[in-house]
């Protein structure tokens, strides 16, 4: 599944400032298709790659800090990062 190594990240804009975690990024070896799939497509393969990536924590931190809305970052999908940003679900009892 992991293809020919490359020095480019599949993430537009990130390569210009080149955070250090990109040196560990497994996605740089696979291309963007796994990480930015068509709407409604599975992100399972991207998440599996992320699980083996040593840059995962820093990648997720970067995505949250920069409000990245699209694609898989740090092993989390767009919806998973949105839930993480919003925090735990609130119940009526929490608001009382
Ligand atoms: S955690 Fe995933 S998206 Fe982030 S750098 Fe690693 S492989 Fe890429």
UniProtKB/TrEMBL annotation:
Location (main, coarse): cytoplasm
Q: Provide the alphabetized UniProt keywords.
A: 4Fe-4S, Cytoplasm, Disulfide bond, DNA-binding, Iron, Iron-sulfur, Metal-binding, Transcription, Transcription regulation
Q: How is it modified after translation?
A: Upon Fe-S cluster removal intramolecular disulfide bonds are formed. The Fe-S cluster can be nitrosylated by nitric oxide (NO).
Positions of the UniProt region annotated as Disordered = 77-96
Task: List, alphabetically, the Pfam families matched.
Answer: Whib (PF02467)
InterPro entries per the UniProt record, alphabetical = 4FE4S_WBL, Whib
Where does the source fall among the domains of life?
A: Bacteria
Q: Which PANTHER family match?
A: TRANSCRIPTIONAL REGULATOR WHIB, TRANSCRIPTIONAL REGULATOR WHID-RELATED
What role does it play?
A: Acts as a transcriptional regulator. Probably redox-responsive. The apo- but not holo-form probably binds DNA.
User: Which protein are we looking at?
Assistant: Transcriptional regulator WhiB
Q: Which organism is it from?
A: Streptomyces cavernicola
| Organism lineage string | Bacteria, Bacillati, Actinomycetota, Actinomycetes, Kitasatosporales
């Amino acid at each position: 599944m992991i293809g020919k190594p490359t020095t480019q990240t599949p993430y537009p804009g990130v390569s210009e400032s080149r955070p250090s975690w990109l040196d560990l990024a497994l996605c740089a070896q696979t291309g963007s298709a796994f990480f930015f799939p068509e709407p409604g497509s599975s992100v399972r393969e991207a998440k599996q790659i992320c699980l083996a990536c040593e840059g995962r924590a820093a990648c997720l931190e970067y995505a949250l800090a920069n409000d990245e809305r699209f694609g898989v970052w740090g092993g989390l999908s767009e919806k998973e990062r949105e839930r993480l940003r919003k925090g735990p679900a609130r119940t009526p009892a929490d608001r009382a």
